[in-house]
Amino acid sequence: PWDKIGEDEKIDLFRCYQVAFTRMGRPSKEDADRVAAKLDAVYPERYQSLNRELSMLQLYLGHPNAIPKTLALLEAATTQQEQLHYAFHLRSIKDGWTLDQRRKHFTWFNDAAVKHKGGHSFQGFIRNSRNEALALLTTEERTALDPVLRVAFMPPAPSGGGPLKVVKEWAMEDLLPDVEQPFKGRNFQSGQAAMLKAQCLACHRFGIEGGSVGPDITAAASRFNRRDLLEAILLPSKVISDQYNNMIYQRSGGDVVVGRMLKEENGKLFIRTNQLDDTLTEIPKSDIQASKPSPVSPMPEKLVNVLTKNEILDLIAYIESAGDKKHANFRK
To answer: Which of 37, 106, 194, 275 has the fewest CB atoms in 10 Å of its CB?
Structure first.
């Protein structure tokens, strides 16, 4: 009987399964379902040593209960090491998730980046694990999970806390002469850090990171030259895409609502007035007297005023490279 077998013997059994699957390849669906059903009956166990092995097996075999049971263990885990184990092995599972389960998994990554501690490479480990999970999301999942996914791994706050210090009120004439010169020896790490410091990833997707309330800027350099990029950063309201433009809604009572309509349902418009907030404002369609595009971009101005000139140049070089460390912009 299962309850008569000791902890060590159970671990030996689980590892025999793991070795067999590693050496002989993934079992047939019939065999996988049969093994997973037996293991599901005892998962979770009372010992964490057994649950670590069971979680790996059940996620690999794809049992329908593997994700919810492993997430429950992740939420209940009292040590950082236990949490890391479950979150890490969940990262490579593509199918079988609900949106709520995905949300819990990515919320853990966001919290871990702030709360958990480790060595020099720890933040990189968390970021890489999160990126692997991000890469498996569908477009629909990314859109639905945007409020959670747009949370970026920010650099440490400046000593003393509080807002970042303004370096300068940058204007086109301050930067354009340097931007129009050939880039050589720009700093990849500085550009990457500048993107976080200027909060670009709160709204924009770059690679597999960032939000989706603004345009994807991964391939921005294929559509815009450096002057255009600089202008879009410093003067976001000069050219506003119809796809991302806010609307101004004049209500019959005189109130004005500015935002982006996300849906129309049951005679009501649902407006997101703050692109970094999930809260929606409901307006009866019959209550709208007039509407027109807003002349002001949803993207705030002056975001790069916390950056030095070199940081802005590195940021533009980083965007132009699409995140490629080997790009010519960074060669000496």
So the answer is: 37
CA distance 310 to 316: 10
| 223 vs 229: CA distance, rounded Å | 10
Per the domain annotation, does 164 fall within a domain? no
Alpha-carbon distances, residue 119 vs 124, 158, 230 (angstroms): 10, 21, 37
Phi, psi (deg, nearest 5) at residue 63? -65, 140
| Residues composing the chain | 332
**How does strand 209-210 pair with strand 205-206?**
antiparallel
Q: Please state, in angstroms and as integers, the Cα–Cα distance from residue 314 to each residue in 57, 153, 167, 189, 236, following that order.
A: 45, 19, 16, 8, 19
| Helix, strand, or coil (residue 320) | helix
Task: Flag whether 163 is in a domain.
Answer: no
Q: Are 188 and 321 a contacting pair, CB within 8 Å?
A: yes
pLDDT in tens, the chain (332 residues): 788 889 999 999 999 999 999 899 889 999 999 999 999 999 999 899 999 999 999 999 999 999 999 999 999 998 999 999 999 999 999 999 999 999 999 999 988 877 887 765 677 788 878 888 988 888 889 888 888 887 655 444 444 455 678 899 999 999 999 999 999 999 999 999 999 889 888 788 888 777 777 888 999 999 999 999 999 999 999 998 888 888 999 988 888 889 888 888 899 999 988 776 667 889 999 999 999 999 988 888 888 999 999 999 999 999 999 999 999 999 98
Of 249, 276, 277, nearest to 261 (Cα)? 249
Yes or no: say if 70 and 91 are a contact pair by the CB < 8 Å rule: no
**Domain range spanning residue 274?**
247-293
Query: Residue ranges of the alpha helices (H) in 165-248?
Result: 172-179, 188-197, 226-234
CB 165 within 8 A of CB 177: no
Same domain assignment for residues 217 and 270: no
- Asked if residue 307 and residue 278 are part of one domain, the reply reads no
Contact 142, 149 (CB under 8 A): yes
Q: Are 290 and 254 in contact (CB under 8 A)?
A: no
Name the DSSP letter for residue 306. Answer: G
